[in-house]
Amino acid sequence: MGTGGRSGLRPGKGTAEGVTAGKGNTDGVATTTTATAAVASCQYRCIECNQEANELYRDYNHGVLKITICVSCQKSCQKPVDKYIEYDPVIILINAILCKAQAYRHILFNTKINMHGKLCIFCLLCEAYLRWWQLQDSNQNTDPDDFIRYAKEWDFYRMFAIASLEQTAFFIGIFTFLWVVRPMTAEKKPNFVLLLKALLLSSYGKLLLIPAVIWEHDYTPLCLRLIKVFVLTSNFQAIRVTLNINRKLSFLAILSGLLLESTMVYFFQRIEWDIGSDCAVYKPQDF
User: Fold this and answer.
1) In angstroms, rounded to a whole number, what is the distance separating the alpha carbons of residues 274 and 179?
2) What is the DSSP secondary structure assignment for residue 10, as one 8-state letter?
3) 64 has pLDDT over 90
4) What percent of the chain has pLDDT over 90?
5) Residue 66: which of 85, 53, 47 has the closest Cα?
6) Could you give the CA distance from residue 1 to residue 15 in angstroms, rounded to a whole number?
7) Which regions span the lipid bilayer (predicted)?
8) Residues linked to residue 184 through DSSP beta bridges, in sequence order
9) What are phi and psi of 59, to 5 degrees?
10) DSSP bridge partners of 67
């Protein structure tokens, strides 16, 4: 989930060279330069106080680097803007697993990660495989007929569609709640695009579903519930860090998403029971 070191940083350090490039030009160019500087000032975030920063480090000659200290005019914490730029990716990942807010700010604001869609698809495939595996385990049919094999294959596609719709409902519930309480969340309009990426990244815990299936034992249901709790905790931290809101609103947002997701699960259960689908033996709330 996390990438550390300078290789994972977003393009450009946000230094002052681009700001001073227009010195001596006309007023129009100076105005453009000022606007560029304003945009550059929003490029990074301090992982300690969440204030905006111009740069993460300054590169001197001969590869000498100096980490920038947070000196925001609003609320300066006088700490390094991002200490994780010197950390190994494994250390950053461990801190993210521990749900540290600093690690989440580093990953979400100070790195360039474009794997949200791929990670989302892979997590949905893991969840669909788990549901399909439980469905096949409950239907012990060894008939080698091609029709049976095709039916099992379409069952997997159906599980993938159901998992996708349930996750969509979960996200819609979160966004709806945050939209309603938007005046309470932040002084400026929240970035829901960044929040969506943060939620997708923070759902990486679903990758643990595959080892839970491979290492099958008597405590698999307990493991699935623990994985669910871990994913929700990561989503909770992602909401709190991205929108810079308190824990109460983040918790209520998660509850809203779970409520809408549970409604979707109940709807699928009723539909499957009405049409007599063999999928009724699977209970999505087990995960």
Assistant:
1) 35
2) P
3) no
4) 24
5) 85
6) 27
7) 159-180, 192-215, 249-268
8) none
9) -95, 110
10) 57
Give me the pLDDT at residue 68, please.
83
- Put simply, whether the predicted model's pTM sits higher than 0.85 gets the answer no
Which of helix, strand or coil describes residue 42? coil
Q: Are 245 and 198 contacting, i.e. CB atoms less than 8 angstroms apart?
A: no
State how far the Cα of 41 lies from the Cα of 35, in Å rounded to an integer.
10
pLDDT at position 267? 84
* Alpha-carbon gap, residue 21 to 211, rounded angstroms: 53
The predicted pLDDT at position 41 comes to 46
Whether the Cβ atoms of residue 79 and residue 69 lie closer than 8 Å to each other = yes
Confidence at residue 279, expressed as pLDDT on a 0 to 100 scale? 39
Find, among 66, 88, 102, the residue nearest to 4 by Cα.
Answer: 88
Task: Using the CB atoms, write b or e for 242-274: b if 16+ within 10 Å.
Answer: bbebeeebbeebbebbbebbbebbeebbeebee
